[in-house]
Specification:
about 240 residues; mainly alpha; flat
């Protein structure tokens, strides 16, 4: 039984040795320094590449995990796959952090440059204004009196006023005539409506009278027929 376990023990020792040999290389790979970006475009390209490679690392780990379940040393295989993925993701994260830091620093530098340029322009404008000669002060006491307003004569203004009043009076009269005509049309419509209502009431009363007369005639006719029938029975 010990002889049968000897190959298994050798395999375990070999796996442990392979892990021990691979660990320094992985640690050295994890501690590698990310290259520096030199432009915003380069940083954007790095972020895009990191996203693509991160998907590839995860896909590779998923495929390797499926392979590990078909091996004898499942846990050992899974540990190697996990460690490989961890190292690769750590390197990608270092690239991502460096690119994002470069973009933030570039944004701050651009903002500072804009503020500095704006301050420089403000200083130049202030210096230009200070270099201008002072404006002459107006002598209000010696200034000539203002010219009288140019207007038409009083007679012309009175004539215009009279014409305007005449037009307003004519417009008022025209409006009064319109209101009177409108009132007359309203009264006529009212009279016509009352006349139509009276005609309708008269026709209704006549129809009702004829209907009542007809009913009365039918009653008399029925009574006469009944009396004749009774007389015939007595005979």
């Amino acid at each position: 039984m010990r002889a049968s376990l000897k190959p298994l023990g050798g395999m375990i020792v070999a796996a442990a040795v392979s892990v021990a040999l691979a660990a320094p290389a992985m640690a050295q790979e994890a501690t590698s320094v990310a290259p520096s970006s030199h432009s915003v475009a380069e940083a954007d390209a790095t972020l895009a590449r990191v996203a693509t490679e991160r998907e590839a690392v995860n896909a590779e780990y998923a495929a390797g995990e499926a392979v590990c379940y078909n091996k004898f040393f499942v846990n050992n295989c899974l540990d190697k796959a996990k460690e490989k993925r961890r190292v690769e993701l750590a390197n990608l994260r270092a690239l991502e952090v460096e690119a994002e830091h470069f973009k933030r620093a570039a944004s701050v530098a651009r903002r500072d440059a804009d503020l500095a340029e704006r301050a420089r322009k403000d200083d130049e404008e202030l210096a230009r204004r200070e270099a201008l000669p002072p404006k002459p002060v107006k002598d209000v006491d010696n200034a000539p009196p203002p010219a009288p307003p140019k207007g038409r004569r009083i007679a012309e203004r009175e004539a215009d006023h009279a014409a305007r009043m005449k037009r307003e009076a004519a417009a008022t009269a025209a409006n009064a005539d319109k209101r009177a005509a409108s009132a007359a049309r309203y009264e006529q419509k009212k009279i016509d409506a009352e006349r139509r209502q009276a005609d309708v009431a008269k026709r209704v009363a006549e129809t009702e009278r004829k209907r009542a007369a007809k009913v009365e005639a039918e009653k008399k006719k029925a009574a006469a027929a009944a009396a004749a029938a009774a007389a015939a029975v007595k005979k």
